[in-house]
Amino acid sequence: MADAEVERSRAAGDPAGEVEGLYGLARVALRGGDLERATGLAQRALAVAQDAGERRLEERPRHVLAAVARLSGDHARARDLYEASIELNRVLGQDEHVHSEYHNLALVELHLGNMERARQLIVESRERVFRYGYRDFLPYLGLAGAALASTDGDMTLTARLLGFTDQAFASLGQVADPDDARELDTIRTHASAVLGRDAFESERATGAAWTLMRAFGRTWSGDTGRRQDEE
Q1: Higher-confidence position of 134 and 231
Q2: Which of 128, 199, 206, 220 lies 20 to 30 Å (CA to CA) from residue 213?
Q3: How far apart are CA 35 and CA 130, in angstroms?
């Protein structure tokens, strides 16, 4: 479908459609683990967007390039790309994309050893999710919390937050993006090795049963995502 959209849009002189098609192909390559192909497709999409002079078309290709840098382990470059993506999304007024990129930036900062910056970004991310009712981001709160707990050396909390994260993704019918899936696998492997498989699975099961209140001391209040204690 993405290939067909690229061909159609080229023939029609439709840069938005061509960028969308190339972005779709880049996402397929990214999920397939072909980082080189994902990079090439994203760069082609970015070139089309820039030739068209439409900054909004640059956003998704730039997001893919940042994800590739993160998956490649080039966290310094990933940080620069995520920060640039955040600024672009602010200009475009795309608040949820700004939020998503801050989540990615927080995990990159953890890898770079910038603990306090990462902790600050994770706390701010949590506040936005509940303030604005970003329900689809709940699994990512669990992931960020597990990453932070693992870095802090609290493997029991890490395992429980992994359980919460797994259940949150399942409840939404979602799976993690490739870069976040890599984070989850790494954290899971480390926590299981430290705790032992049986203890890890027991703690993970405990976390899978956690409510929002138990995990984060919060609960939803209607569709706005406001805390009950703000009513």
Answers
A1: 134
A2: 199
A3: 34
Model-level pTM? Answer: 0.90
Sole residue written with tokens 């927080």: 106
How many angstroms separate the CA atoms of 170 and 207, rounded?
Answer: 14
Q: What's the CA dihedral at 157, 162, 163, 164 to 10 degrees?
A: 90
Tell me the C-alpha distance between 86 and 99, whole Å: 8
In this structure, what is the dihedral angle of CA atoms 166, 215, 137, 31, given to the nearest 10 degrees? -30
- Cβ atoms within 10 A of the Cβ of 92, count? 14
pLDDT digits 0-9 by tens, 111-131:
999 999 999 999 999 999 999
Rounded Cα distance, 148 and 110, in Å? 8
Give the pLDDT score at 24.
94
* pLDDT tens for each residue of 82-103: 999 999 999 999 999 999 999 9
Please tell me the predicted confidence (pLDDT) of residue 230.
Answer: 34
C-alpha–C-alpha distance, residues 30 and 160, integer Å: 29
Closest CA to 177 of 30, 21, 78, 29: 30
Give the integer Cα–Cα distance in Å for 75 and 27: 20
What is the DSSP annotation of 61-114?
HHHHHHHHHHHTT-HHHHHHHHHHHHHHHHHHT-HHHHHHHHHHHHHHHHHTT-
Please give the residue that has the higher pLDDT: either 10 or 79. 79
Contacts of 190 (CB under 8 A, 6+ apart): 150, 155, 158
